[in-house]
Specification:
The complex is a heterodimer of chains A (459) and B (295).
Chain A lengths: L1 H8 L10 H7 L2 H8 L3 H5 L3 H28 L9 E5 L3 E5 L4 H38 L6 H7 L5 H27 L20 H7 L4 H36 L6 H13 L2 H12 L4 H8 L13 H30 L2 H9 L4 H16 L1 H12 L2 H7 L17 H11 L3 H25 L1 H4 L6
Helix pairs in contact in A: 2-6, 3-6, 5-6, 6-8, 8-20, 9-10, 10-14, 10-17, 11-14, 12-18, 17-20, 19-20
Chain B lengths: L3 H44 L19 H8 L6 H32 L5 H11 L8 H10 L7 H12 L6 H8 L4 H8 L4 H12 L1 H17 L2 H7 L8 H8 L5 H39 L1
The chains are: A mainly alpha (459), B mainly alpha (295).
C-alpha cells in the first residue's frame, strides 16, 4: 500500500497549475473565446505567431472534417453497402462501376478518429496556453515570445523536440495500424462468405468462434496456444540455462584457450539468423545432408523425420533454437555472471559444495533475481518468434484440412490466416489473444520485478 | 602450513581430480564447438562446391570452383543478386541514420529528462511491444498504399518507413546506458549555464560513444536480417527484393537444384559484413546488458 501511495504522488513534481478545469473556471473572457477560436487569448497577449499557429491548426482540422472527415465517420457504422456493379457497355465490353471498399472505409474512419483525438488533445493544450498567458499577464509576468518558445525547445522543453518525430513514427506505423487491426476483429472481413470487399460489424462473434471449445477454429486455437506456451517456456529456459552453463564453463579457472572457445560460438551468431535457419532446414531435410550421410553409412534405415513427425518436429525446433540462441545468451550473461560476489562461492567451497550445488544454490537464484526483466523480454520474444518457426518448418507437419500446423505458433498461424487464407478477422482475434496472454504473463511479472519499482535507485 | 605434511596425499588426489575434470571440460567444449562450427563450415565449403544440388553424399566436395560466386553476379535474369544487394544496402544506410536518431532521442528523453508523460509513454511502449510485430502488417500495407508508396521505386521509401517508423520503441538498451552516466554531470553543466540541449549534445553524447556505435550497427543490420516485412510489401515485384527474400527464393523447389550452391555463396557474402559488425559489437552487447539490468 505504501508503495502505491508513492506512485500516486510522483506526478506532483510537474506543475498542475494550468489545467483545463481551472482554465474554464477561472479564465477570463479571452480564455473562453480561445475555447472556440484557438489562439485568441494568445494573440491578445502578444503571442501572435503562437496564436496564429493554433488558429491555423483549427482551420486545417475543420477543413479536413468538412471535406473528408465527416463523410469518413458517417460511413463507419455501415462500412459501406454499395457493391461493385458490372454494366454492359453497348460498345461491346463490360464496365465496372466502383462500389464501396469496406477496408478503405474502415481505414479512413480509424485515421479520422485518431486525428480527432489528437485534435482534442491539442485543443486542451491551447486552452491551457491561453489561460497561462492570461494569468501571467495579470501577474505582470513576462509571456514568452515565439522566439523564446523556440529557444525553450532546446532547454526546458527539450523532450518535445526529441520526442516529436519518434512518437509520430510510432503513432503512424505502430499505433494506428494496431487500432485498425483490432477493429477488424469485430468485423467479418474474411474470405469466408465473400467478405473481402464489403464487410460488416459483427460484434464479438469472431471471438466466440475462436475461443469456443467446440468448432474447428476453436480447437485449433487452443492447441496452437498450448504449443506456443510450451515452446516459449522451453525455448526461454533451455537457452537461458544452456547459455549460462556455457559461459560458466568457458570462464572457469581451469579452462584454456578461452578466446578461441568464445570465438567458435560467436561465429555462429555472426551469420544472419534467417540464413542459419534456412541452412538448418536444408541440413535436416528428408533428403538433406544429415540424413544422406547417416543413410550412406548404414546408421539408419530410413530418413529421420526431423520435420515430418509431430514430436520430432517440435523437439527439432527447440534444439535448433538452442543452437541459434545459446551463443547470444552466453554473451549476454557473461558480464552479469562476473558481477556475482566471489566470496559467495568461496564460502560455499569451504562448506564443501560441489560445482552443481553451487550452480543451483548460488548462480541460478542470483541470476534469476537480477535478470527477471530480461527473461520476460525473452519469453515475449519467443511467443512472437516468427522467423524460427516459419523458416524452419513453416508450421509443418500440418494435418489435412487444418489451417494451423503442429509446430505453428500463434504468430505464424496469424500470418497464414491473414496472408495465405485472407481470414483477416480471425487473424486479428489471434493477434489480440496473443497480446492478452503476453500481458497477463509479463505485466504482472514486470511490475513486481525489482528494476521496475526501483528504476532510479541506481542513478 | 600445518596441514602441509598430512595433506600432501590429499593434495595430489585433488590435483588429479582437477586434471580429470579439466580434460572432461575441454572434451565437452570440443564437442560443442564442433556442433556449432560445423554447419558454418559446411556452408563455406558448399559455396565452393563443384557438383550441384542440396542432396550430397560426401561432406568434402569432389571439385572446387568459384562459379557459384560468379553465377550470383552474372546470371541476373532469374534472381538479380547484385540488385538485391544494392537495394538492401541503400535501405539499410538510410534506415540506419533515421533509426539511430530516433532511438537515441527517445532513450535520452526517457533516461535523463523528466516530464509529465514520461512514465505513461514508457508503459505504452511496453504494452505495444506485447503485440505480435506484424499483426499490423496488413494495416501498414493499406496505409502505405493510401500514401501511394506500394508501387515502383516508392517501395524502397515504404520499406525505409516501415523499418525506421517504429524504431523509437527499441530504446531500452540505450536508456540503460544513459542511466549509468552520473546525473551530477548534468547538474554541474546546468549550474554553469548550459541549456539542456547543450548537455545532450556536448556532454552526454561524447560520453556515449559505445552505445551510439551499438545503435548505429543494430539499426544498420535490421534490413539485412528482416525477411517477413520485405516479403509482404514487395510481393512479386522482384526489382525491389532485399537479399533475404532473394536467398529464400533460391531454396524454392524450382530453383534449389540450380541455385543451392549459389545460395551458400550468397549467404557467405551477406554474412561477412554482418559478421564484422557483430564481432565489433560483441563488447557493447555485453556492456549494454550488464548496464541495463544493474538498476
Amino acid at each position: 500500500m505504501k508503495k502505491k501511495k508513492k506512485a500516486l504522488k510522483a506526478p506532483s513534481e510537474f506543475s498542475k497549475e494550468f489545467n483545463v478545469g481551472k482554465a474554464l473556471k477561472n479564465g477570463g473572457p479571452l480564455t473562453w473565446i480561445s475555447v472556440i477560436i484557438f489562439g485568441a487569448g494568445n494573440i491578445a497577449r502578444k503571442q501572435i505567431i503562437k496564436g496564429l499557429l493554433f488558429l491555423a491548426v483549427e482551420v486545417a482540422y475543420i477543413y479536413f472534417m468538412v471535406t473528408n472527415g465527416i463523410y469518413n465517420l458517417s460511413m463507419l457504422p455501415s462500412l459501406g453497402e454499395v457493391e461493385q456493379i458490372e454494366v454492359w457497355n453497348p460498345k461491346g465490353f463490360y464496365e465496372y462501376i466502383a462500389g464501396d471498399k469496406s477496408y478503405l472505409i474502415l481505414l479512413y474512419g480509424v485515421v479520422t478518429i485518431v486525428i480527432s483525438l489528437l485534435f482534442i488533445a491539442f485543443w486542451r493544450e491551447t486552452i491551457k496556453s491561453a489561460y497561462k498567458a492570461q494569468v501571467y499577464a495579470k501577474k505582470g509576468k513576462h509571456n514568452n515570445t515565439f522566439f523564446e518558445d523556440v529557444k525553450d525547445l532546446f532547454d526546458g522543453s527539450l523532450h518535445k523536440l526529441l520526442l516529436a518525430m519518434p512518437v509520430t513514427g510510432v503513432l503512424v506505423f505502430t499505433i494506428m495500424p494496431l487500432i485498425y487491426m483490432i477493429s477488424m476483429a469485430f468485423t467479418n472481413y474474411s474470405k469466408v462468405g465473400e467478405h473481402l470487399i464489403l464487410f460488416d460489424w459483427v460484434g464479438i462473434d469472431t471471438f466466440k468462434d475462436v475461443l469456443s471449445l467446440s468448432g474447428s477454429i476453436g480447437n485449433e486455437f487452443w492447441s496452437v496456444l498450448g504449443w506456443t506456451l510450451i515452446w516459449a517456456v522451453f525455448a526461454t529456459f533451455t537457452n537461458y540455462i544452456g547459455g549460462m552453463i556455457l559461459a560458466i564453463i568457458i570462464n572457469r579457472k581451469g579452462t584454456h584457450f578461452k578466446a578461441m572457445w568464445r570465438f567458435c560460438f560467436v561465429l555462429s551468431i555472426a551469420i544472419p539468423q534467417f540464413v542459419s535457419l534456412l541452412i538448418m532446414r536444408t541440413l535436416l531435410g528428408t533428403s538433406g545432408p544429415v540424413n544422406t550421410i547417416l543413410l550412406n553409412n548404414g546408421m539408419i534405415d530410413k530418413a529421420l523425420p526431423f520435420f515430418t513427425d509431430v514430436t520430432w518436429a517440435r523437439v527439432t525446433v527447440i534444439v535448433v533454437n538452442l543452437w541459434v540462441g545459446v551463443p547470444y545468451t552466453m554473451l549476454q550473461v557473461t558480464g552479469i555472471l562476473q558481477n556475482i560476489p566471489a566470496d559467495l562461492y568461496e564460502a560455499a567451497k569451504v562448506d564443501g559444495a560441489n560445482a552443481i550445488t553451487q550452480f543451483f544454490k548460488i548462480t541460478l537464484p542470483y541470476m534469476l533475481f537480477v535478470t527477471t526483466p530480461y527473461l520476460i523480454q525473452t519469453f515475449t520474444g519467443n511467443v512472437n518468434n516468427f522467423n524460427i518457426i516459419y523458416l524452419l518448418t513453416a508450421g509443418a507437419p500440418t494435418p489435412v484440412g487444418a489451417s494451423a500446423g503442429k509446430t505453428d505458433l500463434l504468430v505464424t498461424w496469424l500470418y497464414k490466416l491473414t496472408i495465405d487464407n485472407q481470414k483477416f478477422n480471425i487473424g486479428a482475434v489471434i493477434g489480440i489473444m496473443t497480446f492478452v496472454v503476453l500481458s497477463i504473463v509479463s505485466l504482472v511479472a514486470y511490475r513486481s520485478s525489482g528494476s521496475y519499482k526501483d528504476e532510479e535507485g541506481f542513478q | 602450513m600445518k596441514r602441509k605434511s598430512s595433506g600432501s596425499v590429499e593434495y595430489t588426489s585433488a590435483k588429479i581430480k582437477r586434471i580429470i575434470s579439466n580434460i572432461f571440460v575441454h572434451l565437452f567444449l570440443t564437442i560443442l564447438a564442433f556442433i556449432w562450427v560445423s554447419p558454418v563450415l559446411w556452408v563455406v565449403i558448399t559455396s565452393f562446391r563443384g557438383e550441384k544440388g542440396p542432396g550430397i553424399s560426401r561432406i568434402i566436395p569432389k571439385s572446387f570452383t568459384i562459379d557459384n560466386y560468379t553465377k550470383l553476379f552474372n546470371e541476373t535474369t532469374v534472381l538479380n543478386f547484385p540488385k538485391m544487394f544494392m537495394n538492401t544496402l541503400i535501405i539499410a544506410l538510410i534506415v540506419c541514420v533515421i533509426s539511430t536518431f530516433f532511438v537515441l532521442s527517445v532513450a535520452y528523453s526517457m533516461s535523463r529528462l523528466r516530464f509529465k508523460v514520461r512514465k505513461p509513454l514508457m508503459n505504452i511502449s511496453m504494452i505495444l511491444g506485447l503485440f505480435p510485430g506484424f499483426m499490423s502488417m496488413v494495416a501498414v500495407y493499406y496505409i502505405l498504399k493510401a500514401m501511394g508508396l506500394t508501387d515502383g521505386a516508392q517501395l524502397r521509401v515504404a520499406l525505409i518507413m516501415v523499418y525506421s517508423g517504429g524504431s523509437g520503441m527499441g530504446f531500452y538498451i540505450a536508456k540503460g546506458f544513459f542511466d549509468t552516466i552520473p546525473k551530477t554531470l548534468d547538474e554541474a553543466a546546468c549550474i554553469d549555464g548550459a541549456t539542456k540541449f547543450q548537455v545532450f549534445s556536448k556532454i552526454i553524447m561524447p560520453l556515449s560513444k559505445p552505445i551510439i556505435v551499438h545503435t548505429i550497427l543494430t539499426s544498420f543490420m535490421a534490413p539485412w536480417v528482416d525477411f517477413i516485412f520485405a516479403r509482404v510489401l514487395t510481393t512479386t515485384k522482384s526489382d525491389y527484393y532485399t537479399v533475404s527474400i532473394g536467398l529464400y527464393n533460391m531454396l524454392d523447389k524450382e530453383y534449389v537444384v540450380q541455385w543451392f550452391n549459389s545460395f551458400c555463396a550468397g549467404a557467405v557474402l551477406v554474412s561477412i559484413p554482418i559478421a564484422i559488425i557483430f564481432l565489433l559489437m560483441q563488447k557493447f552487447y555485453r556492456d549494454g546488458m550488464s548496464g541495463a539490468v544493474k538498476g
